[in-house]
Amino acid sequence: MGLAKTEIFTDLQNEIALYAKVFGHPARVSILQHLFKINSCVCGDLVNEIGLAQPTISQHLKELKHLGLIKGNVEGTSVCYCINTENWTKMKEVMTQFLDQDISKSDCC
Q1: Contact partners, residue 82, CB within 8 Å, separation at least 6
Q2: Per-residue pLDDT, 89
Q3: What global pTM score does this model have?
Protein backbone atom coordinates (compact mmCIF):
# COMPACT_ATOMS: atom_id res chain seq x y z
CA MET A 1 0.00 0.00 0.00
CA GLY A 2 1.25 3.49 -0.83
CA LEU A 3 1.51 6.56 1.31
CA ALA A 4 -1.65 8.22 2.59
CA LYS A 5 -0.72 11.50 0.84
CA THR A 6 -2.29 13.47 3.66
CA GLU A 7 -0.70 16.64 2.28
CA ILE A 8 -3.19 16.72 -0.62
CA PHE A 9 -6.10 17.07 1.81
CA THR A 10 -7.14 20.09 3.85
CA ASP A 11 -6.19 20.47 7.48
CA LEU A 12 -9.84 19.97 8.40
CA GLN A 13 -10.09 16.74 6.39
CA ASN A 14 -6.97 15.41 8.09
CA GLU A 15 -8.29 16.45 11.50
CA ILE A 16 -11.60 14.64 10.94
CA ALA A 17 -9.72 11.53 9.78
CA LEU A 18 -7.59 11.56 12.94
CA TYR A 19 -10.68 11.79 15.14
CA ALA A 20 -12.28 8.93 13.23
CA LYS A 21 -9.10 6.88 13.60
CA VAL A 22 -8.96 7.37 17.37
CA PHE A 23 -12.57 6.13 17.67
CA GLY A 24 -11.74 3.21 15.39
CA HIS A 25 -10.59 0.94 18.22
CA PRO A 26 -12.98 -0.28 20.92
CA ALA A 27 -10.26 -0.09 23.60
CA ARG A 28 -9.92 3.68 23.09
CA VAL A 29 -13.70 4.08 23.14
CA SER A 30 -13.79 2.06 26.37
CA ILE A 31 -11.04 4.18 27.95
CA LEU A 32 -12.89 7.39 27.10
CA GLN A 33 -16.18 6.00 28.42
CA HIS A 34 -14.48 5.00 31.67
CA LEU A 35 -12.91 8.44 32.10
CA PHE A 36 -16.30 10.08 31.59
CA LYS A 37 -18.00 7.61 33.95
CA ILE A 38 -15.63 8.22 36.84
CA ASN A 39 -15.57 11.98 36.12
CA SER A 40 -12.07 12.32 37.56
CA CYS A 41 -8.50 11.39 36.81
CA VAL A 42 -7.51 7.73 36.74
CA CYS A 43 -4.10 6.51 37.81
CA GLY A 44 -3.52 2.96 36.69
CA ASP A 45 -6.71 0.98 37.31
CA LEU A 46 -7.47 0.92 33.59
CA VAL A 47 -5.87 -2.51 33.21
CA ASN A 48 -8.48 -4.07 35.49
CA GLU A 49 -11.29 -1.95 34.06
CA ILE A 50 -10.55 -2.51 30.36
CA GLY A 51 -9.06 -6.00 30.59
CA LEU A 52 -6.02 -5.47 28.39
CA ALA A 53 -2.31 -5.67 29.23
CA GLN A 54 -0.61 -2.56 30.60
CA PRO A 55 1.56 -2.00 27.49
CA THR A 56 -1.56 -2.16 25.31
CA ILE A 57 -3.42 0.30 27.53
CA SER A 58 -0.38 2.59 27.49
CA GLN A 59 -0.31 2.58 23.69
CA HIS A 60 -3.99 3.51 23.49
CA LEU A 61 -3.51 6.25 26.10
CA LYS A 62 -0.61 7.57 24.02
CA GLU A 63 -2.85 7.81 20.95
CA LEU A 64 -5.61 9.59 22.89
CA LYS A 65 -3.12 11.98 24.47
CA HIS A 66 -1.38 12.65 21.14
CA LEU A 67 -4.70 13.79 19.69
CA GLY A 68 -5.34 15.85 22.81
CA LEU A 69 -8.58 14.19 23.89
CA ILE A 70 -7.04 13.26 27.24
CA LYS A 71 -4.35 14.83 29.35
CA GLY A 72 -2.01 13.27 31.85
CA ASN A 73 -0.31 14.47 35.00
CA VAL A 74 2.63 12.73 36.64
CA GLU A 75 1.88 11.77 40.23
CA GLY A 76 4.76 9.93 41.84
CA THR A 77 5.66 6.97 39.66
CA SER A 78 2.42 6.92 37.70
CA VAL A 79 0.59 9.12 35.24
CA CYS A 80 -3.01 10.09 35.96
CA TYR A 81 -5.28 10.65 32.96
CA CYS A 82 -8.49 12.60 32.49
CA ILE A 83 -10.56 14.04 29.66
CA ASN A 84 -9.22 17.26 28.15
CA THR A 85 -12.60 19.03 28.11
CA GLU A 86 -11.45 21.93 25.95
CA ASN A 87 -10.19 19.64 23.19
CA TRP A 88 -13.16 17.29 23.60
CA THR A 89 -15.51 20.23 22.95
CA LYS A 90 -13.49 21.26 19.90
CA MET A 91 -13.61 17.69 18.54
CA LYS A 92 -17.39 17.57 19.05
CA GLU A 93 -17.83 20.83 17.13
CA VAL A 94 -15.69 19.62 14.21
CA MET A 95 -17.38 16.22 14.04
CA THR A 96 -20.90 17.64 14.44
CA GLN A 97 -20.33 20.05 11.59
CA PHE A 98 -19.03 17.18 9.44
CA LEU A 99 -21.83 14.77 10.37
CA ASP A 100 -24.58 17.38 9.94
CA GLN A 101 -23.72 18.08 6.28
CA ASP A 102 -26.75 16.11 5.16
CA ILE A 103 -29.34 18.01 7.19
CA SER A 104 -30.13 20.70 4.64
CA LYS A 105 -29.54 18.57 1.54
CA SER A 106 -32.20 16.99 -0.60
CA ASP A 107 -31.99 13.45 -1.89
CA CYS A 108 -29.91 13.30 -5.05
CA CYS A 109 -30.80 9.80 -6.17
Answers
A1: 35, 40, 41, 42, 70, 71, 72
A2: 98
A3: 0.85
